[in-house]
Design brief:
three-stranded antiparallel beta sheet, 2 domains, mainly alpha, 180 residues, Four Helix Bundle (Hemerythrin (Met), subunit A), 6 helices, globular
């Protein structure tokens, strides 16, 4: 590993096969510079929280819609197989759930979607993508949302998520071993 700092303060760790960027934290400096003149608008915060609470009743419907999009993308993969286009559509649907699930109140569904994203990202559109593993991820997300599992401490959902993560890791290692 090589560590270097760019002129803009970005610290990077360079590895053989990837690089990790660590941008500087400038917010604390901005607040310190603003000093006593920086005041939180508690009224604005309260209004934002009230607006978010009003939207919360829609979260379940939005999540169900995202699951439908994911399931439709999976169906296309089943019909056409995994190619660049079908993989991208499935990845996009899973990535949307990964990003939105916690906000919508389904953190475990977000973790499962993250696992599916990892599988699709790591294996790509190579022949032999484990379609059954794609199915298991989509089915798990569907079940979590259908059963309205909102706790990030649900034992069965956590066990399922851990097992899917193990299977993804095994599939990724197998794909890497078989790569030229």
């Amino acid at each position: 590993m090589i560590t270097r700092e760019a002129a803009d303060g970005v610290l990077s760790e360079v590895y053989e096969d990837h690089e990790i960027l660590h941008p500087p934290h400038r917010l604390a400096k901005a607040l310190a510079t603003a000093g006593a003149s920086a005041r939180l608008d508690l009224g604005a915060i309260a209004r934002a929280e009230k607006a978010l609470a009003a939207l919360a009743v829609e979260f379940s419907a939005w999540m169900h819609n995202e699951v439908k999009v994911l399931d439709a993308a999976r169906e296309i993969v089943r019909q056409r197989g995994v190619d660049e286009e079908t993989r991208a559509a499935l990845f996009r649907a899973a990535h949307d759930i990964k990003g939105e699930a916690a906000t919508f109140g389904y953190p475990i569904a977000g973790r499962v979607a993250g696992s599916l994203c990892r599988l699709l990202d790591e294996i790509g559109d190579r022949p032999g993508v484990p379609l059954i593993l794609i199915d298991r991820h989509v089915d798990a997300i569907r079940a979590i949302v259908r059963q309205d599992v909102r706790s990030d401490g649900d034992a069965m959902a956590l066990s399922l998520t851990a097992r899917l993560d193990e299977l993804v890791t095994a599939s990724v290692l197998e794909a890497r071993a078989g790569s030229p």
